[in-house]
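Example A, followed by Example B.
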Amino acid sequence: MTGWISVLAFEFHTVEVQPGEEVTLQCSNLSRLYVRLSWFRMTNRKGKISSMFSPESNATFHEGFQNSKFNMTSNTSVLFLEIKQVDSSDSGLYFCGEDSSEKLIVYGATNLKVQEGRSQNPSTMILGSLTVFLLLVIIGLIVKIRKFYTAEDDRQNPQRSEGRILSNPTHQNKNQKACTTERAGAKCCVRCYEI
């Protein structure tokens, strides 16, 4: 575009958002006539995002700016630019105003900052919490199963308890007993002796 740029009652805003959020930028619609109103984004080069002739008309989106991600609307006093699912590549200086072949009149600008890594996506936090909870449940189940099989093994193999030293609770300071379990057919008996 050749011509000149003028600034009319300039407004400047800074907006900070998290990745994945939706943001709506706005600036005052100072036009009193049906002129081409546009949103631009300044990165390494100026890029026209969208334009419209009146609040009632549909916006036209320009190369590199998909209609599914960007939405331009207007009423008699405010121009809006909605950006969905922002990411770090959306950071930059956005400005709006009248656009013609001879001149660009800027009404206002917004510096959009997408904060990478400052906080996690809520769905990621929920997924992480759920993973930790399930891991704790699995560990608890493994411990219970291990205790169950140890108790079952002790019931099926009482010889494993042979030679355990039992202290006599009524005479703790006196004698200790060693007990052995003997099995004879269906009968089982325990023999204890003092040590």
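Example B, a separate protein, is given below in the same form.
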Amino acid sequence: MITVFFDGLCSPKNPGGVAAYGYLVYRNGELLHRGWGVVGEGSGMTNNVAEYEALLAAIRWIQKNAPGERVVFKGDSNLVIKQMSGEWRVRSHTSKRYVPIIKSMLEGIEHEFVWVPREENAEADALSKHAYEIYRRGQRSG
């Protein structure tokens, strides 16, 4: 079984800051992959955009490297977890943009979404901060 921990942030302000994310992929408790990235900066960037982009990046990795395996996605964003599991309605423009794409990508993959407290998502949180810091340093050196 595959377990994915994912997280996103928008800093130094939300909305409008730098949206960055991190995710980790485990198989039966063994780390397979760490991923992180920056979505963008400024208009349209939010914590939720970063969270959904983390999910997209993780799903792309799974499609290439672990097709056909059962996946449990764990995150500390109540909104993302509840919308992806169908417990909450999709209302915002951001969610309406991401949820159908992610659901389509997950067709044929046995999966579930589980909310975890922030403390249990510390590694993914650290990766999103890492992506933000790399971006910030790169911007200052240019």
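On Example B: The chain has a mean pLDDT of 95.
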